[in-house]
Amino acid sequence: MAGPYDLEEQERIAELKAWWEDNGKFVIGAIVAAILALAGWKGWQYHKAQSAEDAAAMFEPVDKAVKAKDGKAIEAAAKALMDKYPSSFFASDAALHAAKEHFTAGRTNEAREKLEWVMKNGVRELQGVARLRLAAVLLDEKKHSEALLVLDGNKDEAFTAVTADLKGDIMLSLGRLDEARAAYKLAADKAEPRNPVRQIAEVKLQALGGAPAPAVAGAPQ
């Protein structure tokens, strides 16, 4: 249990929690979207030569429905693709799009089902994305223990930084501030300099008073 904090630190913590309540979904969405774009490009390069032309064609209605923001069409097209070509990259990608639509519409149970499907049946390139999104959904539902359990299953080093950042958010939500600081520091340390996760984690860490002090010129290293 965290010890007592001075008034200034309590104000910083309260401000960070309030900011997260208002913006958390958007931050997670931005991070995961960037990861999904990278994973999607790599997956496309790897799978396009192997995936059936029919599976690729069946993804087109999903893409059109996403652009049109037609939730019913996204669900229908994704389900058809998942049923017919469950092992294809396109089916996993379609399921992620459907999960995002469900979550945005407040249908978290359906969002979880799609994300769990990708984690169990999807292509490896997108399983890590599904894991992060599922943990974010569980955090939104205040199911902290379940969210942590999902994140603990990550074995892909490419997701270490964003996994740590999300763990920090869970610890912050639980009021376990020392553990939140440690998680944000790990995220900042593991993220590449241009990775948006690094900057976001550093901002959160600084807000919790955990940012390292700037180096002093001439001081011993």
Automatic annotation (TrEMBL):
Could you confirm whether the keyword Membrane appears in this record? yes
Pfam families found in the cross-reference section: TPR_21
The membrane-topology field of this record reads: Single-pass type II membrane protein
Cell membrane keyword on record: yes
Q: Where in the cell is it found?
A: Cell membrane
Keyword annotations: Cell membrane, Chaperone, Membrane, Transmembrane, Transmembrane helix
Sequence intervals crossing the membrane? none
Of the GO CC terms on this record, one is: plasma membrane
What does the record give under GO molecular function? protein-containing complex binding
Q: Which residues form the Ancillary SecYEG translocon subunit/Cell division coordinator CpoB TPR domain?
A: 17-209
Instruction: State the family named in the UniProt similarity comment for this chain.
Output: Belongs to the YfgM family.
Q: What is this protein called?
A: Ancillary SecYEG translocon subunit
